Amino acid sequence: MGNSLRWFRMYAEAIDDEKLRLLAFEDRWHFVALMCCKAQGLFDTDDDPDMVHRKLAVKLGVQARELDEIHRRLQAVGLVNIHLEPVNWDKRQFRHDNSADRTRRYRERLRGEGQGENEVNDCDGHSDAPSRARATETESDTETETSPGERRSPSRSPRRSYPQWFEDLWAKVPKRAGSQDKKAAFEQCNGRLAEGFTVEQIGDGLDRYRTYLHATGRIGTDKVLMGKTFMGPADPPHFLNDWTPPAAIGGGSSHADVTAEIERDAPEEAIDGEYARTG
Fold this sequence. Notes:
With about 280 residues, the protein is mostly helical. It has 2 domains: about 10-90; about 165-279, no CATH class. Helix content is about 50%, strand content about 0%. It contains 13 helices and 2 strands. It has helices at about 20, 25-40, 50-60, 65-75, 90, 100-110, 115-125, 130-145, 165-170, 180-195, 200-215, 225-230, 255-270, and strands at about 180, 275-279. Helix 9 packs parallel to helix 11 and helix 11 packs across helix 13 (about 255-270). It is elongated, with a radius of gyration of 29 Å.
C-alpha cells in the first residue's frame, strides 16, 4: 500500500449531495468506509479481484453477499464504479506539492517584487508577512462595511431547494394545525425510497389520506399527521394504508363528493402556498 494516504478530503457539500441523500444512513457510512479503503490503497494492490473483495467485506464488517448488495446500491446512484471504487477520486483527492516547492516559489516571488536577500531569508517560508497582508485587507474591508452613517443589513440564508418530484409530493401533504418540518420529511422520504418504495406509492397514499381527512372533518386540525411522520418508518408505512373513509352518517358527503370537494379546493390551496410549513 505504497500509495496510501493518512487522510483524504471530505467536502462540506456532501451533506446536501442528492446522491448521498438517496441512500439509507448505513449506506452513507459504507461509502465513507470505501473512501477510507481507497485512501489506504486497498484498491491499488496487486491482489486478485476476489481477494480485494474479501478484504473490503472485512473492512466494512459485512458478508461477501451483503457487500455485493451495497455495491449495487452505491453504483445505482453513481457513487462507485464497477470495481467498487469511489468515482472521481483522483479529481477530488488531488495531491498538492510539498512545502519545499512552496518555499522556493515564495522566495522567487519576493525577489521578483524587489525585496532583498536578507528579507527573503528572514521570511524562510514561515514569516507572518502574508498574514499581516491578509489582516490589512480584512481591516480595510471591515471599515468599508461599517462606515459611519451606514447600517449593515442582516444577511439572509438562501432558501433551501428540493427536487421537483419532492415539491410535487409536498404539495399533496394535507393542511394541519401547527407547523411542518419539510426538511425532515424530505429525509424520511429518501429513506423510504432507499428501502425500495416509490414516489408514486407515497403520492397515492397522500391522495387517499387527504380524502380520508376531508370525509372525517379532520383536515386542518392537529389530528393530521405531520409530513415527516406520514413518510416515516412504520409497519406498514402510513402511505400504504387504505385510509378508507367511514360510511357517511346522517346524509353526510359520499366518498365521491369528498373527492370532488378536494379537487375544487386544490387551486385555492395551491395559491395559499405551503400553509404553515417550514424548511
